[in-house]
Each structure stands twice: as C-alpha cells, then as structure tokens.
Amino acid sequence: MAELIAQASPRRMARITGVLYLLTIVTGIFAQGFVSERLVVPNDAAATAINILTQKSLFQLGFIVYMIEMACNIAVTALFYELLRPVSRSVSLLAAFLGLAACTIKTLSRVFYIAPLFVLGSSHYLTVFNMEQLQALAFLFLRVNDQGAGMAFPFFGFAAILKGYLILRSNFLPRFLGAWSALAGLGWLTFLSPTLGNRLFPYTAAFGLLGAAAMILWLLIVGVNEQRWKEQSSGQTSF
Amino acid sequence: MSTAVMPARIAEGSPRVKAKISGVVYFLVFVTGVFGFSVGGRYVVSNDATATAANILAHESLFRLGLASSLIATALYIAVTALFYDLFKPANRSVSLLAAFFSLVGCATGGVSFLLLLAPLVLLKGAQYLSVFNVEQLQALALACLKLAGEANNIGLVFFGVYCLLIGYLIFKSNFLPRILGAAMTFAGLGWLTGSFASFLSPPLIKVLFPYIMWPGMLGEASLTVWLLVKGVNVQRWKEQVSAARESFT
C-alpha cells in the first residue's frame, strides 16, 4: 500500500482511498449491525449480558473489527487530505483535523464497548455486587459506548461538509459527489441533539451510505482526473 | 545550548538538531512512561479489590505522581510525533502524515486510560454521596476501573503499533537512517499489535506472553532513540531527499 502512495500518483491514491473507504464501511456495518445490535437487547440488561457471555468470541470479534474500522478510517482521513489538497491546503487540513477528532472520539468510546467483559466475567472480587447490578453496569457501559460514538457524528459531519465544498470546487471529481457529501454532512449534524440524531438515524445513515457508496465506486472505477489534479495542485505550494 | 538559541535553530530546520531533539524527547518519553507504568501497575493486586484499594490509599501521592508522569509521557510523545513528521517528510510526506495521525489517536486514547486511573481515587475517598454503596462495592468498582484502564492502554497500542510500522517503512524509504532501524521499528510495531490483539482475544494468553511481548517494542523504539541521540541523521542525504521530493512534486 505504502509503496503505491510513494509514487504519489493521484489516481493510485484515489484507488487506495476507495479500497480503504470500502473497508471502513464494511467493517463498521459488520461490527455495528451484525455484532453489536444482534447481541444488545434494548432496555434488557439481563438478556444482553447473557448474549454477550454465551457469544463471547463474536463480541470480541466485534471489538477487533471496530479497531480495524478505526484504523481504516484514520487512513482514509489522511488520504482525503492528500487528494483534496490541490483545491485548498488549509481547508483540506481543517477537514482532516475534524475527521481525526471524530476518529479519536469514536475510538475512545470503544473502551466502553469492551468494558462489559470486565464486569460480567466471574472474577471473585465482583461478587460484592449481585448479578443484576453487574448486568446493569455492563448495560450502562454499552450505552456510554453508543452515546460516545454518537458524539463523533457532528465532527464527521463538519468534515464531510468541508470535503463536499472541496470536491465542488475541484476540477478532478464530479460535483454531485461534493453536493452529496455536504448534504450527508448536514445530516450527521443532527447528532448535535442526540435525540433528534437517533430519531433520524435510519434516514441519515441510508443517505450517507448511498453517498459513500457512490464515492467509493467513483474512486475505484474512475479515480480522479489525473491531469486536472496536477494542474490544480501546481497553484499550491508543494512542500 | 541556551534556550534562546534553540528555537532559532529549529526554525532554520537543521535536520541534525531536529534529530537530536527528537532523540532527547523520545528518551524522556521512556523515562516518564516507564515510571508512570510501573507506579500504576505496582498497586494493583489482581482479583483483590481490598488490597488494591488499601495500596492506593496508602500511597496516594506516589500514585498521583505516577499518573502525572504518564500524562507528561503522552505530551512528550505528541512532541516526538510532530518532530518525526518533519524529520520523515522527505522520505514520503503523505505516509509521514498518515503515521502522525495514527500516533495522535494513540496518544488521545491514553487520555481515557488516565481518566480511568483517576476514577479509583474518586471512588475510594469516601465522599458522602457514595455511601449508598458499601465499601467492598466501591473497592470492586475501583479495581474494575484500573483493569479497564489497562484495556484502554491496549487500544492505544493498536494505533502505536501501526505508527511504528509506518515509521519503519519511512526509515526504509529514507536515505538518511540505517535500514536496520527500519527493521527494528517494523518489529516493534508487530510486537505492539500482537500484544494488543492477543489481549483482546485471550486475556489468559497475554498473561503468559506479558513481559516478553513488550521486548520487541521497547527494543525497537529504544534503538531508534539511541541512534538519534548519538548519530542523528545523515544531513547531506536528508537535504538531497528533500530536493528530490520537491522536484518529483512539481
């Protein structure tokens, strides 16, 4: 991978971005949709605890996939900075920093995804609590994990709006991708109010996912217009 | 070197000075980090919440000092990250930035682990509002927080692992540092990644691996530190690579 970046061909970079973006989406959907949401029973701490303990490996796998998701997401953030740098270095850097803050918040909240295993394990020192109390604690941690990940959304949103703006102003990517990114970013801003964000989540997520899919396909199949990318970047200071 | 001269030298961008400063700061990361880690770990008695609580309360100032030391280690590592970004930019700017991003997320993850290390002190100090829990329960919660702090640390290691791999790659691509250091850093990155993923998948396994799994990481990072302190970088080749990078871009 790094070998390819070294050549700094924008088309190659676009392809790598597409692959890692796809991985981010796939791992995110797997960990969230197929692990987290399957094991966590809303408002039922006992059932959730039983699910986690009986399917502990799946739960742990979910955690590892979350970590891979975050690693891919950080790489995508850095790569988009490079790709959109020719349009405006400062705006692109700002978008990357916001994206990085979002990745950090999301990574931190994952500490509370794995925390239930620490209170549900049958360690002797925990016997001072009864089972229901430990299950409630475990459930509380999972809620913190969810809320924490939700706090990352506005940061992703601001980053997506800036990325949208950069794509609209670029000569090497189609404008509809930029408009879509900016609108999806506005959608993620609904998480500034977690209640509103959660209520609209299915629509925001669907719209965001479609936009991401379009972006990924474009990056993988078409890439960027290499000549125009270079033309636009010659106006910028290079180093 | 007087402090008045130092910033001027950095501004001048002499790679040798930058390398030396990185070496010094990296060395300080080791000192503060190892101190913080050993103090934090010393008071935890596995599966004995009462003994752990007694230890922490009996040595509260040292426990807090260890925590402060870990915080300083993280701040210094952020400085190393910024210095390395500059130092390795000539090898490949994009990869150097990618590496810095990974390191920053790793450093921030430390923040949560510090919070969880601080939590036991809040739980154990006997505030009135906590009296709805009995002492044993508060001690158990305190121990659970300490264990969770260890796990947060492991999460950070995932990102530091990738960071070391990328720095290893950048050393390979650079002409101004010996390739053996690149191999050492690659090895270090693999060590951190193995350690963290082993702890996620199988806590019993990590108990067997534990002291040894630290070695590749510690040795790799220590060898880079010593090299930067003693030898620095090959300045001429660094400058050549800067101009080569400039040409290839335009």
Major sheet attributes of chain B = none
Strand content of chain A: under 5%
Count of DSSP-assigned helices of chain B: 9
Give the number of domains of chain A: 1
Number of helices of chain A: 11
Through-space gap between termini of chain A:
22 Å
> What's the overall geometry of chain A?
elongated
The oligomerization state is heterodimer
Q: What is the molecular shape of chain B?
A: elongated
Order of helices and strands of chain A: HHHHHHHHHHH
Estimate percent helicity of chain A: over 70%
Mean pLDDT over the residues of chain A: 91
The count of strands of chain A amounts to 0
> Which structural class best describes the helix and strand composition of chain B?
mainly alpha
Unreliable sequence segments of chain B: 1-12
Main sheet characteristics of chain A: none
Describe the structure.
The complex is a heterodimer of chains A (239) and B (250). Chain A is an all-alpha fold. Helix content of chain A is 82%, strand content 0%. Chain A is elongated and about 70 Å long. Helix content of chain B is 85%, strand content 0%. In chain B, α7 runs antiparallel to α8. Chains A and B meet through α1, α4 and α5 of A and α5, α6, α7 and α9 of B.
Compile the SSE list and pairings.
The complex is a heterodimer of chains A (239) and B (250).
Chain A: H1 2-6, H2 10-39, H3 45-54, H4 56-84, H5 89-109, H6 111-114, H7 116-120, H8 131-169, H9 175-188, H10 194-222, H11 226-234
Helix pairs in contact in A: 2-4, 2-10, 3-8, 4-5, 5-8, 8-9, 9-10
Chain B: H1 5-12, H2 15-42, H3 49-58, H4 60-88, H5 93-124, H6 135-173, H7 179-201, H8 203-230, H9 235-249
